[in-house]
Specification:
By secondary structure, the chain is mostly helical. The protein contains 5 helices and 2 strands, in the order αααββαα.
């Protein structure tokens, strides 16, 4: 199991901005993270919409973090791209389990594992670049 490519790129993009400590243009972010400019812009739009990154237009435009790096967790970035984290689809509201009590036993285990992963991802913030 692994995170999606988009989540991986989003983490790299936020890390790149955090590491620079200043406003960075999209092309520079693209080059430094090895993410195509088009895909980087798509991810940056999501990060701006979620309040993780701020964008600035014009000749001095670019992107910078909207919060202190210590206030942005890996979980924040991954959930921005992926939505709420679930180890299994049976943890989503849309899923209709027809396995009776065995499904509930799996659900409890998957829910516990998901909570552990969320807690761990929340414990890592982008101040690791400071």
């Amino acid at each position: 199991m692994h995170i999606t490519l988009e989540s991986d790129y989003a983490v790299r993009i936020v890390g790149c901005i955090a590491q620079s400590g200043q406003r960075v243009d999209a092309k520079t972010i693209s080059v430094r993270t090895n993410v195509t400019l088009r895909f980087a812009l798509k991810i940056l739009r999501k990060l701006v919409a979620s309040g993780i990154v701020k964008s600035f237009k014009g000749t001095q435009g670019g992107y910078e973090l909207a919060k202190a790096p210590s206030e942005i967790s890996l979980m924040d970035v991954i959930e921005t791209v992926e939505g709420k984290y679930h180890l299994s689809r049976c943890l989503t509201e849309e899923y209709d389990c027809d396995m009776g009590t065995s499904c509930c036993q799996f659900r409890r285990v998957f829910d516990s594992i998901s909570a552990d992963v969320e807690k761990k991802l929340e414990s890592y913030t982008f101040d690791m670049f400071e």
